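Hi, here's the filled form for the chain we discussed.

Project: internal
Contact: R.S.
Residues: 112
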Amino acid sequence: MDTAYAYPHGGGGLDDCGTAAAGHATINVPLPRGVNDAEYRLVFETVWTRALDRFRPDAVVLQAGADALSADPLGKLALSTQGFLAVARRIVETSPRHADGTPRLLATGAAV
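And the returned structure, exactly as it came back:
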C-alpha cells in the first residue's frame, strides 16, 4: 500500500512499529487516501477491540490530532467532525476505569 502521503514524511507503514518498550504497544494501520467515516470506523472497531482484548491496558493515551479530518491540509483522509468524535467517544467509553468509574485516559492534541 502506498503510504508516501502519510505524515510525517511517508511514515506509518504496516511494518513501522515504533519503539516498543516493556509494557507499551504500537499498532500502525496504513490507510489509503480518502478513507471516510464508515471505512475508518470499521477498521478502528476491528483493531481497537482486538488491541483491548490482547493487551488489556491499565490506561490509554489518546493522541487526538485533527489530521484525519477532511478539512486538514496535512491529512489525506476524509473524516467528518462527527466521525472523528464518534471514534473518540468510543475510546473514552471503552478505556480502563478507575475505581470511581472515570476513564484511565490521557488525551493529548496538536497545538495550532
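Let me know if anything looks off before we file it.
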